[in-house]
């Protein structure tokens, strides 16, 4: 049976370049032979309209000792539970993880627990700080994070490519070319680590 992989766009502000980054990563992965046994779905966090966590039950208690009451929570829970593993596409804002990314992680616990995830960040300097913060949070909710964490930096730093992304939500040709050539193998390697984790599951700790 093919593994179900969600490529999750975690940026929600407008304009945003996240969907274009996710499409690029998706194209790199599906073109590689290692993905032949996987099916990919693009999951856009913006479509779920998650407010700051507003449930009366702690995520770790769902479903054993409680359940979500809001439709947005139920939808997000069902979506994440339906996949075997994830590729998280995340921006770095102001030297850290975006609020939308952190909020989406914190909404759930058991839906994530024990599953593999690759983290791909992007930003002026590639999103190194956000990547570290996201790794800590994901491991905290039980996810198995790939050791390889690609960090996509806009060519030229604070320049036309970054301005087009931030101001217009446009991924420039120079960014696409550099990320494919410079980071493509790293993106594939990170995904291979996800596949290795899927092939070697671990028992959940009660």
UniProtKB/TrEMBL annotation:
Domain NADPH-dependent FMN reductase-like: 4-144
UniProt xrefs under Gene3D superfamilies: 3.40.50.360
UniProt GO molecular function: FMN binding; oxidoreductase activity
Pfam families, A to Z: FMN_red
Record InterPro entries: Flavoprotein-like_sf, FMN_Rdtase-like_dom, NAD(P)H-dep_reductase
Lineage: Eukaryota, Fungi, Dikarya, Ascomycota, Pezizomycotina
UniProt GO cellular component terms: cytosol
Name recorded for this polypeptide: NADPH-dependent FMN reductase-like domain-containing protein
């Amino acid at each position: 049976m093919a593994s179900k992989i969600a490529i999750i766009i975690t940026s929600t502000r407008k304009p945003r370049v996240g969907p274009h980054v996710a499409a690029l990563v998706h194209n790199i992965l599906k073109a590689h032979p290692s993905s032949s046994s996987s099916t990919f779905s693009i999951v856009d966090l913006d479509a779920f309209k998650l407010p700051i966590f507003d449930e009366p039950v702690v995520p770790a208690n769902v479903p054993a000792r409680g359940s979500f009451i809001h439709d947005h929570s139920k939808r997000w829970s069902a979506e994440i539970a339906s996949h075997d593993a994830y590729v998280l596409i995340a921006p770095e804002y102001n030297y850290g993880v975006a609020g939308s990314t952190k909020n989406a992680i914190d909404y759930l616990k058991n839906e994530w627990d024990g599953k593999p995830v690759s983290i791909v960040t992007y930003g002026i300097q590639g999103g190194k700080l956000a990547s570290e913060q996201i790794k800590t949070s994901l491991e905290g909710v039980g996810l198995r994070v790939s050791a390889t964490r690609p960090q996509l930096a806009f060519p030229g730093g604070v320049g036309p490519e970054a301005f087009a992304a931030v101001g217009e939500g446009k991924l420039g040709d120079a960014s696409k070319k550099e990320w494919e050539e410079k980071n493509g193998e790293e993106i594939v390697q990170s995904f291979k680590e996800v596949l290795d984790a899927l092939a070697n599951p671990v028992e959940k700790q009660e």
